[in-house]
Amino acid sequence: MTVGDLVQLSAVKAWCGVTTTNDDALLTALITQISRGVYNYINRSFVLPANVVENYDGNGQQHLLLRNWPVGAISSLTIDGEPIPAAPPLVASAPPQAGYVLESADDQPPGAMQQLFLRGYHFRRGRQNVTVAYRAGYEIVGEAQIIPASAPYQLTAFAPFGQWATDTGAAYANGAALTPAASPSAAGQYAVNAATGGYSFSAADAGQAVMLSYGYIPADLEQCALEWVADRYRYKDRIGLAAKSLGGQETTSYRNRSVPDFVALALTSFRRIIAN
User: Fold this and answer.
1) Structural domain total, the chain
2) Can you tell me the mean pLDDT for 140-154?
3) Domain containing residue 172
4) What is the pTM of this model?
5) DSSP assignment of 45-105, as one string?
6) Type and span of the H or E element at 32
7) Is residue 117 part of a domain?
8) Quick check: is 275 in a domain?
9) CA end-to-end span of the chain, whole Å?
């Protein structure tokens, strides 16, 4: 898959009933084109986990809508160059302490845009005077699994919300990080099959409890890309046709829309509201 593609070639071929490789190049190009169309439609440049640094105009208030979501963690916040700390957790019968607080993310996609709140501070008015560094994107963090006690020492990501897309790390249950390797041969090493989301480990780690972290493509986004690709693929056989008469007895009508109705409806909840 090309970076940014939202659906795999095998899934599109299965959906369209294509059993040969004759149109693989065409379908691959359509997947990339339509994936970009989806990103444009939802007004987002990425959905897989990424670290971003963004500048905003200070609004004089105590809340700010972040551009990307779901947000995994805030790395830093500065206002007019002044570092703002994270606010400590609230304690009963004690006054709240100053700092920033991230609005909680929804439990599962598509989720909603998240706000950054301030206690004891304001996003002082200004042009591009607020800088936020944070991690955003659809990501499973610390999925608990156990390496098989006997060969093959392999695991497959559960991917409960959509297609596995990229590895973002593996660790033992105690938090000690494992090291990626082309062919794991020692304790603490692992390899990933980028096509299947399968993880391989060395015999030295047999039976060990591990935590997997990875980015995924939400199932709804994948389905939207799949159906849009299929629609454009079939359109090549009826370019410019609005209707077709068969022997004067039956007329077939075609709906030629830039975005299929189902796709447009399903993508609504993923669309980004313009933030400054």
Assistant:
1) 3
2) 96
3) 140-218
4) 0.89
5) S--S-EEEEEEEEE-SSSEEE-SS-SEEEEEEEEETTEE-PBPPPP-TTSPPPSEEEEPPP
6) helix 24-42
7) yes
8) no
9) 32
